[in-house]
Amino acid sequence: FFARPLVLVGLLTLAAGAGSAAASYAPSTLQPPRIPREFRGAWIATVANIDWPSKPDLSVAAQKAELIALLNQAASLKLNALVFQVRPACDALYASKLEPWSEFLTGAMGKAPSPFWDPLAFAITEAHQRGLELHAWFNPYRAHHYKSWSPITANHISRTRPLLVRKYGNYLWLDPGEPEVQDYSLKVVMDVVQRYDVDGIHFDDYFYPYAEK
Fold first, then answer.
1. Is 107 left (phi over 0), alpha (psi -120 to 50) or beta?
2. Which of 34, 83, 139, 143 is least crowded, fewest Cβ atoms below 10 Å from its Cβ?
3. What digits encode the pLDDT tens for the residues 143-160?
4. Average pLDDT, the chain
5. Going along 24-148, which residue ranges are E strands?
């Protein structure tokens, strides 16, 4: 019988205290450290040929020309960084001994560009010449994209380590709960870090797949 009036008095007391505290509030005089500069970047998506290359069967000269045009546009817009997708689905847009060449570059998984060139090395050099950072963007767990069309090669992880791969909907995924998957993804990233002068590493699609109907 007496509990509710006592609770009400307590709430009124707290409210009054909160009101008096708010009335005496003053902005902090502490200043956060200055940021050296803004991060003004853009993503270059290679999966399904979203941004680059515009289609997978371009000549090497055309691929380079398109990439140069993107770099020039970034520089003209006063950006200072580009995030370049180098591993869309356990494949590579750079010279890798761990994973096959991406079909989004050459039209067929595992097919090296001819004449040979390394898009990541090229992008780093050209970006730095324009005052742009070049960050490598990895999809750590997606193993195969639904817009892929060429046969999966023998050196793709879905063939070499099939027990680490899960099929869900139209995609293949590495299972991030498997310690071997974690070690494998880290090995792929560290291979790039140790061999290329990248300015950063970005992860995307590190989540579980969207629900399928």
1. left
2. 34
3. 998 888 899 999 999 999
4. 89
5. 41-44, 81-87, 133-138, 142-144
